Amino acid sequence: MNQSVMTGSCLCKRVKYSIETELQEFYFCHCGQCRKVTGSAFASNIQAKPGEIKWLSGAEHVKRFDYPGDRLFTKVFCSECGSGLPFLNKSGKKLFIPAGSLDSEPSILPGHNIFWGDRSSWFEAGLSAPKSEGFVD
Length: 137
Ligand SMILES: [Zn+2]
Ligand SMILES: [Zn+2]
Known about the structure:
two-stranded antiparallel ribbon, 7-stranded mixed β-sheet, Metal Binding Protein, Guanine Nucleotide Exchange Factor, Chain A, globular, 2 helices
């Protein structure tokens, strides 16, 4: 059982939410859709039991994109700043929380890298690159 109340927000802080649910899995998804929609190497998503997403503010800025076709893929985001926000998937059976949108600490840690075969050719090189604080000149 990982029942917990979590809060989160978007970058511009117009949208704030709270969710009470049971967290099931935390994974990095390397699929092509996640790479496109994040503009990055992978999406950090927490899968949870369906539960109510309470929009504490900015509900009018919450925009939903359902990927056409059979592939269950949805992106919910702030229409002002583009930040990812939680959503119930099309089947209504799973709740997804973009981990980076949370302001509270999740009670679980990443346990899987999914769609590993779809990972970008540069992902692993990035993991072993030198670490620095701030930008590189
Ligand atoms: Zn925003
Ligand atoms: Zn994905």
